[in-house]
Amino acid sequence: MHFTPERMTPLKALRLGIDTHHELIIYLRADCPVCRSEGFSAMSRVLVSSEEHHAIATLNIVTGDLLKKGQIGFSEPAWQRLYLQNDNPIWLSHPKPVQSMSYVRAKVYGHTLDEIAFQSIINDIVDGRYADVHVAAFVTACGDKNLSNDEITSLTHAMIKAGSTIDWNLPLVVDKHCVGGLPGNRTTPIIVPILAACGLTMPKTSSRAITSPAGTADTMETLTNVCLSQDMMRNVVNQQGACLAWGGSMRLSPADDLLIQVERALDIDSEGQLIASVLSKKIAAGATHVLIDIPVGTTAKIRTSEAAEQLAESFKSVAKNLGLSLQVLLSDGSQPVGKGIGPALEAYDILAVLQNRPDTPQDLKKRACTLAGAMLEMIGYVKPGKGLAKALHVLENGEAWRKFQAICHAQGGFHTPPIAPYRYNIVCHTSGTVLSINNRKLAQTAKLAGAPADPEAGVELFVKIGQKVSINQILLTIHAANIGELNYAVEFLEEHKDMILIDHGEETCH
Amino acid sequence: MHFTPERMTPLKALRLGIDTHHELIIYLRADCPVCRSEGFSAMSRVLVSSEEHHAIATLNIVTGDLLKKGQIGFSEPAWQRLYLQNDNPIWLSHPKPVQSMSYVRAKVYGHTLDEIAFQSIINDIVDGRYADVHVAAFVTACGDKNLSNDEITSLTHAMIKAGSTIDWNLPLVVDKHCVGGLPGNRTTPIIVPILAACGLTMPKTSSRAITSPAGTADTMETLTNVCLSQDMMRNVVNQQGACLAWGGSMRLSPADDLLIQVERALDIDSEGQLIASVLSKKIAAGATHVLIDIPVGTTAKIRTSEAAEQLAESFKSVAKNLGLSLQVLLSDGSQPVGKGIGPALEAYDILAVLQNRPDTPQDLKKRACTLAGAMLEMIGYVKPGKGLAKALHVLENGEAWRKFQAICHAQGGFHTPPIAPYRYNIVCHTSGTVLSINNRKLAQTAKLAGAPADPEAGVELFVKIGQKVSINQILLTIHAANIGELNYAVEFLEEHKDMILIDHGEETCH
């Protein structure tokens, strides 16, 4: 009565060379007997098995002559996930219903989830059992402040357990994180060499941009190799005390990488997912002491100091549940930091600070040293109140720059960031004083210009709030890798001239 | 400085013959200059323009030789949406950011949305600006009871405005709806001919199954053509006073069809979306008087009479806002209705009732006549308390059956439902009394057997709660169109033997 899938005639695998990013897609002929025998139709979720591996994929039905009879086509991610070669035998069957979606539904209906529930969801996501719509439902259900601190703790635990962890066998491993939303606020590549030059261990893994024009990993990638295996990372840290690596290649909290892809498409903030994302990565990477920077400003990610205080409390409460030492610093989030917005442009700011050049963006330097100093105070390396001075000292005497170069060298070599071939200057049509700068719209402009996919793309901003500007002065320059994106960014900017507000009420005074 | 997309060299359209259901997918070579000039990458959302049409599609990048230089491939839905022919010139550009997603985010963050917000979201969904993940976020954000009655009213209005509406120029146009969750509860095809035989106007449009093994449209499709254009529907109703059509082909509330595709994948209930879905379809179809059937049972969609009363109140409140006469009946939802679960099996039950055959499922007959009678009382056609008798009379004297045949004939002819080639009997291993029947698990079994995609698939249930059963008596038969699905349903059933609970504590009495 019962036939197992193995008894069916297998299909022959064919690599179609279709890049579907992270979605696993398979292609079957409409007249394929297995469609009929299993009742599959377009967009069915199908369990695909080779002799050694299996995965769940989404089915596309081919009505043309793309495939011969008996063939099954694979998109690139599906091909790679199953480690296939052409003509490998493939069997198809129905995947079991995804039981953990009942927990997602429970969350939508306002119930509280326990650690078993979060572990089931996270494991299913990591195993590829969720299509993007399911991940979107989970992300949305956990959106805003829909998770309690206990739930966030459970989610964090689940995300750690679903991936690899690193144990450094050291009593003190430091890390820092900025909740973002402030364009150009790229302090990490400055803080890491300062702290490493002080002898601390800081195995820093960073993410790529989620909804911003650049993540620390995007910026560092314009300066050195950031795709380190865990073994390579261990070597770099053993040599230099620190690294500046992309976290995504290390399977530290791999669920986070999958969640972030959908969060990016939705652009939905979730306090719980934010905290779980940050802390799961830190704990998996072996951190014992973590400093969190929360910029506060009306157009930053966190808009009020009340919201920042609440987020800080949640961070502290969850960290305590997880046995992690954690401190939070609130910082000024009223305007971008430094000049550059976009991977390479931010890298040039970082180089100016580390090299103590005369054009150093002073705001970026001060923020980085304040945070590095706070960490030195937090672990008792210096007395309270002495951190900033120590950090400035290590930066200004060139130790930090030497350490930065040594880290880049250990990671595969230092290289010069790219420069964009297409540029467009926006000039001031009046004289006056800069009243406000809209972080969100500037970030949007940089993204439309191509950042972070084009590392050389972005915005170079030449003014700060309170600065006096004169007619025809350049306010900002848009950088792009191609004409299409340059146009798109310019159009957006021209539709949003309120991005930089100039008060020219007192023109007569100038 | 600015180049419009029209100045670029167009690509040549190629039909790849890939069925991606409702998702619009385009395929570009990795070395295509427009990818570079516009900064597109795999899974980018792209505005695709032919000389006459445009649509937003998701990009897949082709690294093999599927496409020649200068070609752009289209999936079937994308090809059809743009009304293309091979080699038509195609231009690509960035779609504008989907502004209405900010309303979806606002809903996730707990804000109340107004009609403008809902209209923006619904229009963007109907215009294809949302990828499935965006729709999933909207569905999830509106899940459970997250919409107020005013919000549901706004959403309903928005859904009506985004599609066609029908005006019958009649003071009285009746309709009914069952909120579902009760397998086999297929009363509509019995109620419609009873009320039409009484001279009422009932232009019934029904949906296909969302999460159940059969929708009324799926069942009716096994008996006649249900894909009517609005003109055809008008002809049928003018001739016969009623129709039994699929609503999806009429663009009555087209947003609903798109929302339902994602809701089906997520299986997330939303009170607001349920009410808006039902009422938008009814009002767009021109109904003035609507009866809502809410079955209540521990394994039905609505589990308690409190939840049913709350849902009824929301239905009434929103209907009042919309100027619609509406009544709600709560009914017994403790077990399936009739014998059949699945499109064709339910059709056979309906025929037994309409033809007054000796094997008529009495429960289905009584429910249908109770609802038809309630409508006759609601509109004052009979005095209070006289509705059921009138409905039974029209059914038992054959008028309803003649009317049903006439409607089917007007829709394109009556045909006999298919019969499944593969069956499997589940027998009772003990004697005793049926204690409970799990609607959800039975529905799941019918779906695993292939319903509703295979219309002949499903479950035939031979017992009712309280019925005495003896050893080796057949409890149910699984019907399937192929061996794969039959196996899958049998396996599920064997893992969930508690689907039908038998009390054999008093075996000695039998």
Automatic annotation (TrEMBL), chains A, B:
PROSITE patterns: THYMID_PHOSPHORYLASE
Annotated ranges, domain Pyrimidine nucleoside phosphorylase C-terminal: 433-500
GO cellular component: cytosol
Catalytic activity: thymidine + phosphate = 2-deoxy-alpha-D-ribose 1-phosphate + thymine
Superkingdom of source: Bacteria
BP GO terms, sorted: pyrimidine nucleobase metabolic process; pyrimidine nucleoside metabolic process
Name this protein carries in UniProt: Putative thymidine phosphorylase
